[in-house]
């Protein structure tokens, strides 16, 4: 039994989704998902974990396809609508998927793959046609979904979660963030990623709440929806908050007042998927009265830690372990570290993924002998709250015997007048191992980096001061707004 879908049967007359200006009830969602399942089964009793890929805009139809795959006993593999064809082909070949369900907009785009790798393309319209069948019973331990990692350090890996894993990921957030049936949330996040699928859409649907899709982000559209008064929650990545602030800054005083008043009425606003710069948190709080709730999660674990819904939300920190999540902070020998000492986050619990798809060695390496998932993220306990220092092979710079957090230096650099944003990396160096190097996004392309270094000496120890600077207009980012630091290193 898929509990998420079973619960929907208790809300059949309620509004579940708003998509392309149309409102859909839970009953309509269940009916359309049944049509999808019937077409996929075509007389078979169970898909038996067949991988079904789909390329569909964030929409009511997306949700119906995902639920239909689950109802039929398949593994849902959502594809990113912004990815180029080679990235799509990689996922299809890696999962050995025999079918792609595609929106009309993507059928021509995908058609070269029919001959190239023998995959069949089913139109979304045909899959949603009225059809009935007997649905199989689904075991909670059955594989349900494969999401691909961002591949920032190696080729993307398929993260396999079971129905039980997904249920645990949803229920821990529903409990911690106090989701209610009357809640209403806007989904502006990519739906090939845990943030959009679990934190926003699935938590809403578990609760009997409503999720509205906005397939394309536009700051003005988002502000208009906030001003409508229908939202109770909002979740986004830091770059979206940055763009919403920029739009607010450019508005008239009267419009600013209207936007600020509307945003202040939401019960919860969350930031995640990338580190939230403290200046962005502070500016958002200043203009809306909302302290963004920052949390920590990964494709492999769902969400692991969160600042408090009702208590303190400390800037630059990710709070404490969520209900049902076990967490430890350890050194290289898997021994617990003391407070204010850096260590690696390791996670245990029912929300942790089952395996990397068809990669038993990678799966084995991802866990300790006693079953803890090795996140690769470095952090510390700081006055009772956990703080992320960065990813071991991306944000931790090893220079002259020191382990330096790139995120810490970035937070300080953003306070310098004239620096709008920045990213810090370690570049290979024969003498030091790596040297600290900073890319600055500055209004004045002739900004004086010598003055910046002098100013930084008053804020940071000498070994943390960047040796190299480059000035650019934008930072390389993935679809979630996370800086792709390996791409950034090539720019120096």
From TrEMBL:
Name of the featured protein: Long-chain fatty acid--CoA ligase
Chain segments annotated as transmembrane: none
A Pfam family annotated for this UniProt entry: AMP-binding_C
Family annotation (SUPFAM superfamilies): Acetyl-CoA synthetase-like (SSF56801)
Family: Belongs to the ATP-dependent AMP-binding enzyme family.
UniProt GO molecular function: medium-chain fatty acid-CoA ligase activity
InterPro entries: AMP-bd_C, AMP-bd_C_sf, AMP-binding_CS, AMP-dep_synth/lig_dom, ANL_N_sf
Domain AMP-binding enzyme C-terminal span(s) in chain numbering: 408-482
Keywords carried by this UniProt record: Ligase
All copies of domain AMP-dependent synthetase/ligase, residue ranges: 6-357
Signal sequence bounds: none
A GO BP entry: fatty acid metabolic process
Superkingdom assignment: Bacteria
Matches recorded under PROSITE patterns: AMP_BINDING (PS00455)
Family matches, as Gene3D superfamilies: 3.30.300.30, N-terminal domain of ligase-like
């Amino acid at each position: 039994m898929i509990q998420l879908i079973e619960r929907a049967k208790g809300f059949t007359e309620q509004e579940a989704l708003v998509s392309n200006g149309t409102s859909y009830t839970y009953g309509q969602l269940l009916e359309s998902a049944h049509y999808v399942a019937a077409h996929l089964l075509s007389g078979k009793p169970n898909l038996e974990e067949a991988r079904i890929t789909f390329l569909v805009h964030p929409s009511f139809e997306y949700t119906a396809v995902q639920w239909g795959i689950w109802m039929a006993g398949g593994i849902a593999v959502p594809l990113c609508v912004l990815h180029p064809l080679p990235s799509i082909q990689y996922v299809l070949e890696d999962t050995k998927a025999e079918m792609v369900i595609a929106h009309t907009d993507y059928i021509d785009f995908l058609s070269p793959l029919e001959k190239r790798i023998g995959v069949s393309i089913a139109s979304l319209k045909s899959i949603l046609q009225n059809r009935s069948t007997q649905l199989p019973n689904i075991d909670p331990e059955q594989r349900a979904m494969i999401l691909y990692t961002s591949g920032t350090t190696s080729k993307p890996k398929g993260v396999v979660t079971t129905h039980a894993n997904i249920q645990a990921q949803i229920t821990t957030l529903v409990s911690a963030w106090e989701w209610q049936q009357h809640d209403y949330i806007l989904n502006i996040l990519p739906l090939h990623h845990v943030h959009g699928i679990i934190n926003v859409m699935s938590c809403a649907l578990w609760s009997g709440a409503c999720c509205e899709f906005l397939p394309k982000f536009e700051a003005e559209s988002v502000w208009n929806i906030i001003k409508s008064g229908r939202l109770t929650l909002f979740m986004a990545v830091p770059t979206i908050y940055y763009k919403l602030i920029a739009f607010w800054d450019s508005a008239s005083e009267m419009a600013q007042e209207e936007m600020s008043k509307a945003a202040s009425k939401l019960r919860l606003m969350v930031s995640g998927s990338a580190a939230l710069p403290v200046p962005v948190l502070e500016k958002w709080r200043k203009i809306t009265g909302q302290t963004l709730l920052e949390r920590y999660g990964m494709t492999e674990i769902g969400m692991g830690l969160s600042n408090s819904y009702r208590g303190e939300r400390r800037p630059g920190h990710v709070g404490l372990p969520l209900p049902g999540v076990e967490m430890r902070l350890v050194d290289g020998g898997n021994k617990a570290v003391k407070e204010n000492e850096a260590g690696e986050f390791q996670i245990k619990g029912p929300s942790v993924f089952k395996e990397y798809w068809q990669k038993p060695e990678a799966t084995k390496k991802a866990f300790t002998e006693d079953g803890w998932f090795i996140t690769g993220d470095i952090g510390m306990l700081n006055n009772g709250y956990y703080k992320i220092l960065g990813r071991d092979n991306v944000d931790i710079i090893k220079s002259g015997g020191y382990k330096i957090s790139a995120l810490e230096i970035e937070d300080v650099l953003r306070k310098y007048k004239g620096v709008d944003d920045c990213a810090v990396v370690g570049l290979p160096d024969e003498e030091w191992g790596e040297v600290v190097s900073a890319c600055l996004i500055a209004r004045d392309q002739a900004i004086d980096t010598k003055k910046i270094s002098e100013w930084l000496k008053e804020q940071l120890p000498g070994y943390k001061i960047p040796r190299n600077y480059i000035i650019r207009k934008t930072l390389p980012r993935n679809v979630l707004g996370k800086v792709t630091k390996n791409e950034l290193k090539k720019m120096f």
